[in-house]
Write a structure and sequence with these properties.
By secondary structure, the protein is α/β, with parallel strands linked by helices. Helices cover 38% and strands 13% of the residues. The protein folds into 2 domains: 126 residues, Conserved hypothetical protein from pyrococcus furiosus pfu- 392566-001, ParB domain; 83 residues, no CATH class.
Length: 244
């Protein structure tokens, strides 16, 4: 899928298996190994729409402040520990282009179970599926960002954050939205989830629900915003509560 955006980060050196911690460079999207299995496709679709018109310097200026943090491990593989939504969106909008990355750790000599124990100890892996089930063996993680599944409740947590139901907490940013998604999963049920076919449930987005039943959609979003400000959510990252 080569295109004119392939060299958008060509001024950066390519990251290698021996690149030291702190190195900023570039990697092809196809070389990045996910550390989670799902994303919120509503957020992805919004990002894709915003990226399609960017190219050249404009695209580079957008990507550089969003360098993807990677862990080099398991014999020289590259694991992204954040920006999964950015990378799958970029793949869908531009193909297998270079993306700026920063080496968070070089653990290339650490392999297998020891590697994954270190990843888990640092909260750099989220071994759950798109329905919130898990944890599973890290061997079940997706191998490519293009294969990430859709998690409706990850989308819901994004919508709630966009409406200031909570804030992005810099001290607890990685996987924070999944924690909110898990909180909402057992509390917010959309009518469409109860009536759709099983094979369609994994593909369902909030945009689909909004189109099919605007009234129920608005009611459930309002309920999610209420829950986000309630004492039940007080322990979640970025909790802001109710204003007095």
């Amino acid at each position: 899928m080569a295109n004119k955006n392939d060299n958008v980060c060509g001024f950066l050196a390519e990251i290698k298996a021996d690149s030291p911690q702190g190195t900023v460079g570039r990697l092809k999207l196809s070389k990045l190994c996910p550390t989670q299995n799902a994303v919120g496709m509503d957020e992805v679709n919004a990002k894709v729409a915003g990226m399609k018109d960017r190219s050249g310097d404009q695209l580079a200026n957008y990507l550089l402040p969003r360098a993807v943090p990677v862990i080099i491990g398991n014999g020289g593989q590259y694991y992204l520990i954040d920006h999964h939504h950015l990378t799958i969106s970029l793949w869908r909008a531009k193909g297998d282009v270079d993306v700026p990355v920063v080496v968070t750790r070089n653990w290339s000599r650490i392999e297998g179970n020891r590697f994954w124990r270190e990843m888990a100890a640092n909260n750099w892996v989220y071994p759950f599926d798109a329905m919130g089930a898990g944890p599973f063996n890290p061997g079940t993680l997706k191998k490519h960002v293009k294969d990430l599944d859709n998690d409706l409740y990850r989308s819901l947590s994004w919508v709630v954050r966009e409406r200031f139901g909570y804030v992005k907490d810099p001290s607890n940013a990685i996987f924070a939205e999944f924690k909110w998604g898990s909180f909402f999963r057992t509390r917010v049920i959309f009518d469409e989830q109860l009536t759709c076919k099983k094979e369609d449930s994994m593909q369902m987005t909030l945009a689909d629900i909004e189109r099919e039943d605007l009234g129920n959609y608005n009611d459930q979003i309002a309920y999610a915003l209420y829950l986000a400000s309630s004492p039940e959510a007080a322990g979640l990252p970025g909790f802001v509560g109710r204003s007095r």
